[in-house]
Amino acid sequence: MSGLIGKKIGMTSIFDENGKNIPCTVIQAGPCVVTQVRTNEVDGYEALQLGFDDKSDKASTKAAQGHFKKAGTVAKRKVVEFQGYKSEHKLGDEITVEHFTEGEFVDVAGTSKGKGFQGVVKRHGFRGSTRTHGQQSMLRAPGSVGAASYPARIFKGMRMAGRMGGEKVKVQNLKVLKVVTDKNLIVVKGCVPGHKNAYVTIQK
């Protein structure tokens, strides 16, 4: 699906024509530069590689500098491939937030906030143990995780404590409420994964 690379600015809320308060997320979408054009003849598939957010030459390798120099641009911090662009684009073309229109629906993918090592109550929504009847230290413990002599092991997939967050998450069918072309901003209904200034991909 065609789309753009963006950066999550933060959340806010706006009022619709009926006076209802709608929570929404502001994303800086583009401008993105076409840094490579994939073709069936050379690569076996068709796609556009887009680059977003300038990076200094000191922070990039010589190979990366040469790659972006072919497109006539400086090195980029984020590079993503998109398949399914209906309009043709050449190397070095710039794609802006005008790619989206108000009222259409988009999918936004990003990396969720890392929560570190968490217990089963926060990670999986366990209820926890009872607060009375003499129990002392098992308030938020998981309880039994398997049988004893048979099968004498814990099955894969058992919900237990562990690292939470920091995973790729895609939120589908978010409505585009507003497109601010002069500031390269897009406002979508609801929340998107990631912290402020996190990179996200917006797909039609």
The helix-and-strand class reads mainly beta
Helix and strand string, N-terminal first?
Answer: EEEHEHEEEEHEEEE
Low-confidence stretches: none
CATH superfamily of the largest domain: Translation factors
Distance between the termini: 6 Å
Q: What is the number of beta strands?
A: 12
Instruction: Report strand %.
Output: 35-45%
Strand order of the largest sheet: 1-2-11-10-7-12
Instruction: Classify the helix fraction into a percent range.
Output: under 10%
CATH architecture of the largest domain: Beta Barrel
Q: Any idea of the CATH class of the largest domain?
A: Mainly Beta
Number of folding domains? 2
Shape: extended
Averaged pLDDT, please?
Answer: 91
Task: Evaluate the radius of gyration.
Answer: 23 Å
**Number of H- or I-type helical stretches:** 3
> How can the largest sheet be summarized?
6 strands, antiparallel, barrel
CATH topology of the largest domain: Elongation Factor Tu (Ef-tu), domain 3
Function: One of the primary rRNA binding proteins, it binds directly near the 3'-end of the 23S rRNA, where it nucleates assembly of the 50S subunit.
Keywords: DNA-binding, Ribonucleoprotein, Ribosomal protein, RNA-binding, rRNA-binding
Family: Belongs to the universal ribosomal protein uL3 family.
Protein name: Large ribosomal subunit protein uL3
What are the salient characteristics of this protein?
Elongation Factor Tu (Ef-tu), domain 3, extended, 40% strand, 2 domains, mainly beta, 12 strands, single chain, 204 residues, four-stranded antiparallel beta sheet
